[in-house]
Amino acid sequence: MKNYETLKIILLVIIAGTFVFIGFQIKELIEVLESISNHLGNINLNI
C-alpha cells in the first residue's frame, strides 16, 4: 500500500513538472512569434 502512495506522489511530481515545462515552452513560442510578427510589420512599413 505504501508503494502505491509513493508512486502516486512521483506521478504527480512528473505531471506538474511537465505542465511547468510546457508552460515555459509556450511562453518562449509566443515571444518568438511576437518578434517574427514585429519583423514582418517592419518589412511591410518599409515597402
Spans of at least 5 consecutive residues whose pLDDT stays below 50 are none
Number of helices: 1
Number of strands: 0
**Approximately how much helix is present in the residues?**
over 70%
Task: Label the overall shape.
Answer: rod-shaped
Strand content is under 5%
Q: What would you note in describing this structure?
A:
By secondary structure, the chain is mainly alpha-helical. The chain has one domain. It has 1 helix and no strands. The chain crosses the membrane at residues 7-26. Keywords: Membrane, Transmembrane, Transmembrane helix.
Please describe the structure with a list of short key phrases separated by commas or semicolons.
47 residues, transmembrane helix, single chain, rod-shaped, 1 helix, membrane, mainly alpha
Task: Please give the structural blueprint.
Layout: H1 2-46
Structure in a nutshell:
Keywords: Membrane, Transmembrane, Transmembrane helix. The chain has one helix spanning 2-46. The protein has 47 residues and is mostly helical.
